[in-house]
Structure formats: structure tokens, C-alpha cells
Amino acid sequence: MEIRNKANRIRLFTLKTPQMRAFHFSWFAFHICFFGWFGIAPLMAVVRDDLGLTKTQIGNTIIASVAITVVVRLAIGVLCDRIGPRRAYTWLLCLGALPVMSMALVESFEAFLLARLAIGAIGASFVITQYHTSIMFAPNVVGTANATSAGWGNLGGGTTQILMPLIFSGILMLGVNEALGWRLAMVVPGIVLFLCGIGYYFFTQDAPDGNFETLRARGELPAARGEHGMGQSFATAARDIRVWALFVVYAASFGVELTINNIAAIYFFDNFDLTLATAGLIAGLFGLMNVFARTLGGIFSDLFARNSGLKGRVRWLFIAMLCEGIALMFFSQMHVLTLAIAIMLVFSLFVQMAEGATFGVVPFINKKALGAVAGIVGAGGNAGAVAAGFLFRSESLSYQQGLFYLGVAVILAALCALVVRFSPEVEAEESAAYRNAAGDDASGALSLR
């Protein structure tokens, strides 16, 4: 799929162009999705007491919250190829709001588990965000655009940890008890998700020159594939070993971030004897690094590409993954609060840069099956979170031990980055496209104009 008139600059402070409207709406939508997806995580200490949950049951809900996302992410990328990211995002946000608000009706572990399972579907929003920015921005800035939109979306993991306890506290000030308070708190992100879905439909478009249906009517885009074509697109991506290498890499980066989002607040609450609000604030620092960390991953990916082409992008991905694993192992051994916070921030920096570096590579794997590639790699993040969830559901394994083993797994996963190779022809083609898009300004930096 060849999309024309992609933007070669990221002009942050404008909404006049369709490229920048897609950029800002996509990161904001993904950001809001975190409030529905992980809004309950910073309130888990209250939920645990209210529903009488065991550590194993909490672990099962953590797994449920990310398990269904694997399946939905695999499908949503192919769906974007078919109906376009605008309609795909609208449907996901509006339908995803329903199980978020249904959390107010939960009265048992089983109902809570099912609600978290259903809510996990909105995690597929990440794939649409990356798809939309990938077709809106040129090769010289696509790594930065993907990393920034995803990073500011992932920032929702941090703001959720901070704001949800405040929303909960505000509801309690109205005279509501804790058992009802956490349920009502989850209604708030559900309403916002629905409104965001409506806004996405009316204020964005699929591509720089219009929506997919318009482009197809003008003959500027191939006709939408039927079920057979969609399956073929997925099969093409699935046969590429590089896609599965990136699947593993993303499992060990975004999958780890999702895991930390789920356990950070209760980890600090239990291990350092903090209040719920303080534990949520510290846990929120991990996600707040997304303000710049994932963007840095994309910027470095574009800079490495400037000097070394696609090989440079892959080399940078390996470096970021290796540093992530080492930092995580150190974090697991911290028993002093200040040191734990400091090492957590270093770890957060590298895990998010690794995520940005991953999707600095994804747009170049197979442009004709971009949605399928993005979907499979994106699903890797949730598959990694599911696998990591089993480390934290065992009564016999401490959180510190689980984090250490997770760090070892990340280092091993980093080796998969080296599997990603490109033919000399593709290297030459993409280097030429980079130079053409960059023109006189090959910096790929964000523009403030």
C-alpha cells in the first residue's frame, strides 16, 4: 500500500493538517485507553480487601487483563487495512467503554475476572495508533512519530496510577464508602472513552489525502480485501521470521511495561509500607517517563538510520533491550526506597526506548501487510505480559524474585533483535527514501512550529 503526501516534519503545535490531527488524536485515544485498561490497578489494595482476593486470584486478573488483547491485536491490524484506522478506533473506543463501566456491577472474583478480561480488548488501541502514524509520516520521521504517539499514549499508564486514587478519594469525600467508591471511579474512564471514540470519527481521516473508502473510489488505493485477502495478508506477515523476532522483542519490552503497570502500586504498598496514594504516585513515575523516553527510542532509531540505514535501526534496538534487562535485574535487588525509585526510573527509560526502537523497525518489514505486521508485533507485548503474569501469581515466588527472572528473560530476548535483517535492495531503497524525505533537514527532530 503506497500512501502519498506523508508529512516529513512533526509540527507539534498545530491541528490544521490531517497528519497532525491523526497524530494527536491517536496518542490521546491510546492514553485514555489506559484509564480503562489499568484504572483498577492502583486501587487493587482496596479491591483485594473488598472482594477478599488471594495473591493467586490477583495474578489471574492481571493475566486476564492482557490475555484477550493478544487476540484482538492480531485481528485489529488486518481490520485497519480493510476499513481504515479512523473507523477501527471509533468502534474499539465506543464498544470498549461498555465493559469499563460494567465494573460498577462487580460483586465477586468471577465477575471481576470477566470484566478485566473484556476490558483488555481496548489494549488493541496501540496497534491502531501505530498504524495511523505509520501511514501519515515519511521515513525520515516515522520512527519518531510512532515512538512519540505510542509513548504519550503509554503515559496513560503513569497518569492512571496517579489520578485514579485521586478520583477515588474525591468520590469518598462525597460520603460514599470504599466498596462503592472504587466501582464508581471506574465509570469515569468509561464515559471519557466513549466520548473520545465519537471525536475520533469526526475529527480524523485515514490517510493524508482522505479516508480509505474515498481513496478506493478514486482508484488511488487498492480495493478492500475480502476475508480471503485479509487472511492472505496475515499469512504473509506470519511467514516472515523477522516478524516473530520482533514479536519476542516487544514481548520483552512492552510486555514488561504492562506487567509493571499492574503490580507497581501494590509492590511499593506492600514492600515499603506506604499509603495507597504514595504507592500510586511512585508507581506513576514509571509510566510518566513516557513523556520523553519512548520518543527518544524513536529519535535514536531515526538517527541510527541516517548513518547506518536499517541496520542501524536494528543495532539500536539490540542495545536498548540489553540495557533494559540489566536495569531490571538491578531494580529487583533494591530494598531501600530511594534506590528502588532511582533504578526504576533508569529501567523505565530503557524499556520505553526499546519499545520506540521496535516500532522504528516495524514499518519497513512489509509495507503491503503493514497492519498484519503491526498487529502481530503488537500482540507480542501482551503475550509477554501474559507470560510474565505467571511469575507473579505464585504464592511461593516473591515479586523480587519474579522481577529478577524477568530481567534475565529480557536479556535473552534481546538476541532476537539480531535476527532482523534486510536485503541489500531494501536497504538501498529505504536509504534513498530517507534522503528524499529528509531533504535538506535530515534531523528527524520534532518541530515546535
From TrEMBL:
Residues 22-425 form the Major facilitator superfamily (MFS) profile domain. Keywords: Membrane, Nitrate assimilation, Transmembrane, Transmembrane helix. GO terms for cellular component: membrane. Its main location: membrane. GO terms for biological process: nitrate assimilation. InterPro entries: MFS (IPR011701), MFS_dom (IPR020846), MFS_trans_sf (IPR036259), NO3_transporter (IPR044772). It is a multi-pass membrane protein. GO terms for molecular function: nitrate transmembrane transporter activity. CDD domains: MFS_NRT2_like. The chain crosses the membrane at residues 21-46, 58-76, 88-106, 152-174, 180-203, 243-268, 274-293, 314-331, 337-362, 369-391, 403-422. It is found in: Membrane. PROSITE patterns: MFS. Pfam families: MFS_1. Belongs to the major facilitator superfamily. Nitrate/nitrite porter (TC 2.A.1.8) family. This is MFS transporter. It comes from Halomonas halmophila. The gene is crnA.
